[in-house]
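Project standup — Tuesday

K.O.: blocked on the structure for the chain from last sprint. Re-posting the sequence here as requested.
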Amino acid sequence: MPSDDSDILFPSAQDSDGFEFDSDDAQFVGEDDGELKPLLGDDYYMRAALRCAQQAADAGEVPVGAVAVKDGLIIARSWNQVELLKDATAHAELMLIASLPQIIGDWRLDGIDIYVTKEPCAMCAGAMVNSRIRRVVFGMRDPRCGCAGTALDITGFPGMLHNVEVTAGLMEEECKEMFQTFFRTVRANARKKKS
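H.V.: unblocked you, prediction finished:
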């Protein structure tokens, strides 16, 4: 991996929106019931995934972005790079999962949550199961190819060695709008080329 991409896949504790927090002191907020609640909600991490999706769109890729979160910190980011790498497997989720063992030192990704703007396909959902991702949170449902419960349920298939917890439809409208805008632009550009 080129060294100039290290800030993309291996970010510091400071997120790209400038929000800083101390992982020792500010990561969790105590509640009266004794349960620890995360300081940052799911929306925060999905917004980071949306920024990654925008990077994909800006590069002419299908706008899917993903971030990995462990103990409240974003530890890796990725986006679709199929066209750039000329690789049908270069989906945001797979690129992300492939980078994580270098960060945590193990292929077992227990305790890691993935936030992704579109429901994972069969390939990506299978990789999440095999790498033991704790939870996937996705934005836009995919009724044709989504494999985290919509078209198929690979993430929760009975009898698998691991099941991935799923939170579906977070910020779905924002994710869907990004997709629709991207494909409207692609179609408009195709029409211009024909005329």
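K.O.: great, moving the ticket to review. Strands lie at 28-30, 36-38, 65-70, 73-79, 112-118, 135-140, 165-167. The mean pLDDT is 86.
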